[in-house]
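Entry 14. Ran structure prediction on the chain below.
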Amino acid sequence: MHIVITPFEPLQVDATTTWVRDEVPRYLGPPPAEVSVARPVPQPPEAYNARRHQWDAVHLIRWVVERYPAPTALNVVLHPGDLYVPGFNFVFGLAEPAYRTCIVGLARLQHPDAERWRHRVLTEVLHELGHLIGLEHCPTRSCTMFFSNTIRETDAKGPAFCPKCQGLIRVYRQEKVLPQRP
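Output, structure tokens:
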């Protein structure tokens, strides 16, 4: 499994992106996933909703897929802003399995403690990757696949998958049952 982390500008390849790159394989089980970090891409201004002061997560994913395709990889997009999808006040992230791409908004994950910040980013990245692999939301509150409605829930669950979700990841990876692009 190959995973590409794509940051939106003004994010850079930095300590956070490289830490996430190095940590993600630990949680996905054997064989180790290959994770790389792409160069930052520009933000499409039309994805910004000035009335909401937020970025349209669906628009951003589709924009990346059209302009920076990674046809053989799962693409994790990191955005510095606050994300939304219609019908929700905000989202920490969004996965589009049909496009093998997900996005995580970093604005609501901010914390002055660098360790807590990285923990939040890794948790949400793994949650969205779980959706790309085929996992649904999990009722186990400590599982990264538990639906986070608040930052406290993100902090409480952490980046680890519960045993059931770990088993499903093994099955999906062995059978290479990953969504195909439309």
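The CA atoms of residues 80 and 127 lie 18 Å apart. Will compare against last week's run tomorrow.
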